[in-house]
Structure formats: C-alpha cells, structure tokens
Amino acid sequence: MTSALISAIKKLHISVVPQIRVYSSNVAAAATSSANNLSITKKDWGFQPQYTKPREVWIENLDTVEEQKLGLFELHPLVFAAPPRIDIINQNVVWQRKIRFVSWAHTKTRAEVRGGGRKPWPQKGLGRARHGSIRSPLFRGGGIAHGPRAGKSHFFMLPFHLRVHGLTTTLSAKLAQDDLHIVKDLELPTDDPEYLNELIEKRNWGPSVLLVDDTDLAPRNIIAASDTMGHINVMPVYGLNVYSMLKHDTLVLTLSAAEKIEERLLHWLHANTTKEQQPFKLSQV
Amino acid sequence: MAWLGSTVLNLFWKPSVNIVRTRYHAEKQRVIKRYGFEEQIWNGGLLPRTSGKPLPMPEYRPANPWSERKALFGQNDYIDILGPGDLHPVKTLYTVPSWIRGVNGNEYQILLRKRKMLGQAGLRQVRPTKWKDLQRRISFLYRKLNRKTKTGPSPI
Known about the structure:
Structural class of chain A: alpha/beta
Number of helices of chain B: 6
Distance between the termini of chain A: 69 Å
Radius of gyration of chain A: 30 Å
Oligomer: heterodimer
Radius of gyration of chain B: 43 Å
Number of strands of chain B: 0
CATH architecture of the domain at 77-98 and 155-274 in chain A: 3-Layer(aba) Sandwich
CATH class of the domain at 77-98 and 155-274 in chain A: Alpha Beta
Helix content of chain A: 25-40%
Largest sheet of chain B: none
Helix content of chain B: 25-40%
Structural class of chain B: mainly alpha
Largest interface: A-B, 43 and 40 residues
Number of helices of chain A: 8
Order of helices and strands of chain B: HHHHHH
Strand content of chain A: 15-25%
Order of helices and strands of chain A: HEEEEHHEEHEHEHEHEH
C-alpha cells in the first residue's frame, strides 16, 4: 500500500526547484554583463536574500519621451517584496500626521476674561438670582468652563521597527502595483515643463510623481521643469516617507537612490536596535 | 327541437361585439377643485430669500492640494532611518513651536514646560498679562491635580 502511494506520488513529477539563488565564490560582487546594450546587474548584498528571489526591475531613462529599457536591476526582497501590511502603513500615516499636530483651539476661563471683579448686584433683597461675577460661565460673555486649552499636543513616537517596516511595506506595495520605477538618473534634455508632462503622460505614470534622488542637489533641468507643477516633486533619499509615497501616484527612484534606500533599510533590519527601541525621551534626541 | 339548434349555435358561434364609444376621456369636462381658494402655505421646498440681504455664504475657493506645504508633508520623518543617523525627526519639526515640539502630556505638564522655556526667553517682560494668566492657570491646575483629584496611573 505504502509503496503504491509512493509510486503514485513519483508519477506526479513534482520537482522542487530551489528558489534561492546560490552564489558561488567566483561571482563578482556586482557582475554587470552587457548584451544588446542592456546592462544586467546581479547584486551581491551584504545580507543575502534567504527565502525569496530578488525582484527584478527595468532601468528606465528620462532623456527621451519614449521609454527605453537600459537594463535590468535587482531589488532586495526584504525591502521591496515585504508583505503588504496595510495596518502598518496606516499606523505610519497616522503617526506622521500626529507628531506635528498641535491643537491651538483656545477658550478663556472666568479668570482670564477681562473684568468681572465686582459683585453685579447685592446678594439679597432684589428677588434676583445670586451672582458674584459677570464673567461666570453662566453669563453671556463670561468664561468657558472645561473648554479647549491651546497647546494640546498629540505627539508620540511610533516604535522603531514599525517605522522601518512601514517603509518596506509601502515600497513593496508600490512595486507590486507597478507604481515604482527605477531610472538611471534625473537628467532631462530640456527644462520645458511640457516635456516632463508629455513623458509622464506617455508612460502612464499618473498625474502625481515623486522623484527621489540620492543627492541633495538635483539636476537643474528637472527642478526647473517641475517647479511650476505642484504634483511633481523631487526629494532626497533621507526625505522619503510613507505619507509622500502614498500621496503621489508614482514613485520614481534613481539607481543610486534605490541602492541607498536598500542599504539603509537592510542595515536597520539586521542591526542591533536596542538603543532605537528605547522609550522616547526628548532629552536624548 | 328548436332549443337544440339554438344551443348548438350558441356553443359554436359567438357574435362579434364592437363597443362604440360615444364619450371620450379627453373630451370630459374637468372639475376645477377648490375654485377660488388660494393656498397660503408654501409647499415648494426651501423658503426662497427674495427680500433683504443674501445669506453670508463665503465664495467657494477650492484649496490647492498640491501647495508646497501639502505636497511635501511629512518630509524627513524617517531621517533617522534613511539618513546618516545623527538626526532625529523631532529635530526637523520646524513648524511646531520649540516649547511643544516632541512633547506629550497633560495641560499642567505642557504649561510647566512652556513657563520654563519662555520665562527665560522674556515672556514675563514682553507679555505680562499672558505671563500672569499662565501663572494663575498653573497654580489653579496644581491645586486641582494635587488636592481635588485622585492621582492617575503613572505614564511610565
């Protein structure tokens, strides 16, 4: 009976293909092979992907309106193929809104409203209700009891790893939804906004685009072209955040920016973060 | 046997009957109901404002969702992760006044911090009334929290 089962299973031809790319020691750190002018980059990360394959993306260009595929690029699955945890994304967005939100709604108490020191009428003998101040909360124009007081802060720090995973899961969701593109650099041939509009329209990048570069100073042409359009923004790597990635339809990373993001996030995913996980103390930042 | 013949005839043959109409609906005279009665109550919806000033409705000005403040909202919030690591996002909250930046607490705690930071910056001399109100509020909250309410759970 058992042997019959085993032979039946063998007939099914179930073959297990190892999903893990095995690196041999003679593979160069970043092997770049160029065939048909297509650069294919196989990356050798400090932290190898263990259970999932690297994600491959096309390297695109910005110097022509038509899309040209300049090469293939690999993205680390821990950063760009994380599970789509929308709860973490939501926590990150709420955190981003709350850390800078201070409610300045304000009301004056009976002590702060001007005047009201004198007793409005005698305690007895007039047939009227007893009152001690015209600024009492009962009076029109009086103070407000239990009103909002200015400077209500909603600050809190989201746990460190929730913020790291907020970045990875948002980047992964963007990539999975075909909203993340890798370009070689941000060099444009002209500073005409029409050119940039046409390019975005042609490539179906959606109305709003967030371009991320590794450097603080982006090329002049891209800045001049996107200056008049509020929905096309350029950001350095360290400015990238979950809220902006969600607000913009398309995220465009340069090669170096993608590598930098990958490097930073892989570092924090593997580093000892006991110091970062401590409760937030304002005196220590 | 004439009844048999008529029964058979009735059974198999029915005369065709054409209804000739002499009175048509369109030609009917309408009865005017409640003639001479004028409805005094408005039943046509919301009351029109025909006289006097129009309601002070503000002119619709659509907000620009891509103004610089909104388009770049949240920039540098992950600078401690993506940046070189020597800067905390709280340090980049430039839009929040410094005495409340990165602080959370009840009104008493916030006001104590405000007094500590702004008292040295000259609030006492520049805004004496504000300073006096601040002092009164702090002493009021001190008495309320310490003498009239139970101590809540410790935050940490």
